[in-house]
Specification:
623 residues; 4 domains; Rossmann fold; alpha/beta
């Protein structure tokens, strides 16, 4: 390849109708490496990538990129033609780039085989799952071996099995010498990258390698079992079963007697940077209110202050609630659509005072199970009980539900959606200054409602915050949340989980479906489904158990990646390290040249999840 040491951009500024989408943003994309751009919807990720791809011209700054024929670009929509088959989409893309003959056919066959799309070559793109469409889009973008590969949120909303396949495609492109830049809302995706840029409201929060971002974090992070009071509480966020608190300086630590310090990681550093930026903005801009004909509920880009636990119940009462009859229960339920069995003999329970996480690949049966619990579709066999009785309109009035489609009216604002939902449930529209969970919901809606903009014109992440606020407004006994945080920035995601935990501590229960493995640590129990059955349940630690993964450190990671690939071993990229799940030390060492450092580490939940899904009989899934 003739690419320079790095492509990228410097000091970019871009505005839409007077609103800054990019404000002095710079990024370097090095050949043979993966660069991740992290942020929630509206952070500026897509604008930056479109500038790099030549689809947008910035108002100021410089873009350094190869010619358009040397760029591979995946838009957030996956960029495939829904009315063409997999083979036709790739043949069209090959023709556009002047690829033909046996070489193009071999390249297409290799990528579709490894991505698990070989059996879907004659299927219309519109008939593919979301993960399969994303893999097809990535294959189309890298088919011509571009010098610069630009991927806009390739893994957002994609299940962990499909994400693993996508990361194999991404790593193979970098190993082939491409400079790869991808946008993501997921910090665990960022931890796989060699370099990270964190954006918020069009501005840089942090940049560098994950290690550099952590080392540059100001102040200290401490862990505690509960949220502290006072100013420290406004700098706290949930992390698993406990809390993390950011102290800007040693003086703050000494003045607010906190617990012992912890060694921060990338998630801690990004949260600290977001909190620091938020404090600066809150100090500079007064909060607007709902009264009169005000232009907005809160200055654009600001997030609501941390939500306070409301009406927490004594520990002994919470224990009693966990032994009470389940809020939601399925007993050996099966659901068939014609000859297809979507859910097969599944028994689950959700009790008061607990958060249950529901994990599974696309098509595992999660959404079908949720819809049966709600009584929206009947069970073919088995029994479903909701709040102690068969699901009905009466029991559903006591449920807070966020579907994947969000359930918002796109021509109403976030506050108007909240008021309408309150009227439907026969409750007073909540006030944000209330200490109740309904008041917390109003606070979330206020933070999600920039002026009088209809919900349909807001970024997806902000829409999700509004939908979640609406689900909390009538103080439900049970929350059922289907992918509630997809597209939300890390700080906003932490605060949504804080609100879920507060509602559960006050006596509700929650069933949460998610693709984001970092969120599994927020749950008291996990249920993992594959092919319509439960393949594992318990805490994250119980499910991972003593599973190990082999880790490879090599001076030339691309060459080691190729050797492991040729040996038929599943391999994934983590920065410049390689992780080989399901393979022993000796097997990995035999595939590598001398000089590579090989060791074992505890497997991640995502790696264990992948093993469980494969063991359940899913065929044709690439690592």
């Amino acid at each position: 390849m003739t690419a320079p040491a790095a492509w990228g951009a410097s000091a970019l500024r871009l505005t839409y109708d007077g609103v800054a989408a990019l404000d002095d943003v710079s990024v370097s994309v090095i050949a043979g490496q993966v660069t991740a751009v992290v942020g929630g919807d509206g952070a500026g990720k897509t604008s930056l990538l479109r500038c790099l791809a030549g689809a947008l011209r910035p108002d100021e700054g410089e873009v350094h990129s190869p010619g358009k024929r040397e760029i591979g670009y995946l838009p957030a929509s996956s960029g495939v033609y829904p009315d063409l088959t997999v083979a036709e989409n790739l043949a069209f893309r090959a023709a556009v780039y002047g690829l033909s003959g046996a070489g193009a056919a071999r390249r297409t066959a290799e990528l579709t085989d490894r991505a698990g799309l070989a059996d879907a070559r004659d299927r219309l793109a519109a008939q593919l799952s979301g993960g399969m469409r994303q893999k097809l889009g990535v294959i189309a973008a890298l088919l011509h071996r571009p010098e610069l590969l630009i991927l806009d949120e390739p893994t957002t909303g994609v299940d962990p099995v499909s994400r693993s396949g996508l990361w194999w495609l991404i790593a193979s492109a970098a190993a082939d010498g491409a400079a790869v830049i991808l946008a993501t809302t997921y910090l665990d995706d960022a931890q796989r990258a060699a370099s990270v840029l964190v954006l918020d409201a069009g501005r840089q929060l942090a940049s560098g390698t994950p290690e550099q971002i952590v080392s540059a974090m100001p102040g200290k992070v401490q862990a505690t079992t509960s949220r502290p009071d006072g100013a420290a509480g406004e700098r706290a966020w949930r992390r698993g079963a406990g809390w993390r608190v950011w102290y800007p300086s040693d003086a703050d630590v000494q003045g607010e007697a906190g617990p012992g310090a912890v060694e921060p990681d990338l998630q801690d550093a990004v949260m600290a940077a977001a909190l620091a930026r938020e404090q600066q903005e809150l100090a500079a801009a007064p909060v607007q209110t709902l009264g009169g004909g005000g232009a907005g509920l809160r200055p654009a880009g600001l997030r609501p202050a941390g939500l306070r636990p409301a009406g927490l119940r004594p520990a002994e009462l919470r224990t009693a609630e966990r032994t009470a009859p389940p809020l939601a229960e399925s007993i050996g339920v099966t659901c068939r659509f014609g000859s297809f069995t979507a859910v097969n003999d599944v028994s689950v329970q959700v009790r008061r005072g607990e958060i249950v996480g529901l994990l599974g690949a696309n098509g595992a049966g999660k959404t079908t199970l949720i819809r049966m619990l709600l009584g929206l579709i009947p069970a073919t066999a088995g029994e479903v009980r909701l709040l102690g009785e068969p699901p009905s309109r009466g029991t559903r009035r006591r449920i807070g539900y966020v579907p994947q489609g969000l359930g918002l009216y796109e021509d109403l604002t976030a506050a108007e959606n909240m008021q309408f939902a309150a009227a439907v449930f026969g409750v007073r529209a909540p006030s944000s200054d209330s200490g109740s969970h309904a008041g917390q919901a109003s606070s979330l809606a206020m933070g999600a409602d920039p002026g009088r903009i209809p919900v349909g014109r807001l970024p997806l992440g902000i829409q999700r915050r509004a939908a979640f606020a609406q689900a909390l407004a009538h103080q439900p006994d049970l929350l059922i949340l289907d992918e509630p945080t997809s597209g939300v920035d890390p700080l906003g995601r932490a605060r949504l989980w804080q609100a879920i935990a507060d509602a559960v501590q006050a006596g509700a229960g929650a069933l949460v479906s998610t693709h984001y493995m970092e969120e599994a640590g927020e749950c008291d129990r996990l249920i993992i489904m594959a092919d319509g059955v439960v393949v594992a349940s318990g805490t994250a630690a119980e499910i991972v158990g003593d599973a190990q993964v082999t880790v490879v450190e090599a001076e030339d990671w691309a060459a080691a990646f190729a050797r492991l690939e040729r040996a038929g071993l599943p391999v994934s990229l983590a920065g410049r390290l390689l992780r080989v799940p399901g393979a022993g030390l000796d097997e990995v060492r035999r595939a590598l040249p001398d000089g590579c450092r090989v060791c074992t580490e505890p497997a991640t939940l995502e790696e264990r999840f992948f093993d469980l899904v494969l063991a359940s009989g899913r065929a044709g899934v690439s690592p």
